[in-house]
C-alpha cells in the first residue's frame, strides 16, 4: 500500500503480559471478525488502517507485541516513537493487572511525555471469572491519565475498534487544531488492513526481521518526508504550517 506524502503516520502500540488477548484484539480490529484460538505471539506485527479527519489523511499502525518476559528487550524496540499506547490486562488475571506499571515504565523509557494512553480490561466475556473489578481498572487508568475501557474480542459492543478511534480522536484533539464546533468526522478508507510481521522468534525470525528492516527503512523515509513537511506534526502550531503547505499544494 503506497503512502501519500500528505499522510501522517500514527504508531499505536498494544502491550501487556502473555495471554491477555492482545493478538485477538488486533485481529478483531483488523478484520472485524471473531479471532480463532492461537498460540502466544512470538514476533511483533502490525496492521494498517487509513483514516481521514477534516481532510487530513492518517495512517494508523497498530503494533501487537510479545508479552513474554524473554522478549521484553526486543519488544522495547517496537515501542519507540509511539503516539498512542494501549495497556492491556485480563480481568481474570491479577498478575497481568499488576504488571501494567512495568509496561508503562518500559514505554516511557523510550518515548516522550506526549504519548496518549489507554487501558483495556480485556476478556469481559469471562465476567464470571472476573478478579479485577471495572472500578479498579478505572482507578488505575485515572491515576496515569489514561482512558479505560472494558473490551472483548468475542463480545459484540465491547470491541477494540471504537476504543482505538476514541484514543486517536484524543490524540488529534490534543495535538491538532479542531474546527470551531469541535466536531471531528472520521471515515475509514476502502483500503484493506495489512498485517506485517516483525522479528522476535520462531521459525519466522529471519523472514520477519527482513520485513521489519524494510518497514523500518520505509518508515524512516516517510517520517523524514513528514518531518520536512510537518515539522513534528504533534505540536499544534507546527500543524498550522502543515495546513498552509496543503493549501499551497
How would you characterize this protein structure?
The chain is an alpha/beta fold and 249 residues long. It has a single domain, classed as 3-Layer(aba) Sandwich (Rossmann fold), CATH 3.40.50. Helices cover 39% and strands 20% of the residues. The chain is built from 8 helices and 8 strands. Strands 1, 2, 3, 4, 5, 6, 7 and 8 form an 8-stranded mixed β-sheet that branches. Strand 5, helix 5 and strand 6 (147-150) form a beta-alpha-beta unit. The longest helix is centred in the last third of the chain and has 26 residues, at 205-230.
Please, how many domains?
Answer: 1
Largest sheet: 8 strands, mixed
What is the level 1 CATH name?
Answer: Alpha Beta
In DSSP terms (H or I, runs of 4 or more residues), the helix count works out at 8
- N-to-C order of helices and strands: EHEEHEHHEHEHEEHH
Features:
single chain, 249 residues, alpha/beta, Rossmann fold, globular, disordered C terminus
Concise structural overview:
The protein contains eight helices and eight strands. The chain is of the alpha/beta class and 249 residues long. Strands 1, 2, 3, 4, 5, 6, 7 and 8 form an eight-stranded mixed sheet that branches.
Helix-strand layout with pairing:
Layout: E1 8-15, H1 22-31, E2 45-53, E3 56-64, H2 72-79, E4 84-90, H3 94-98, H4 100-109, E5 116-122, H5 134-143, E6 147-150, H6 160-175, E7 186-188, E8 195-197, H7 205-230, H8 236-248
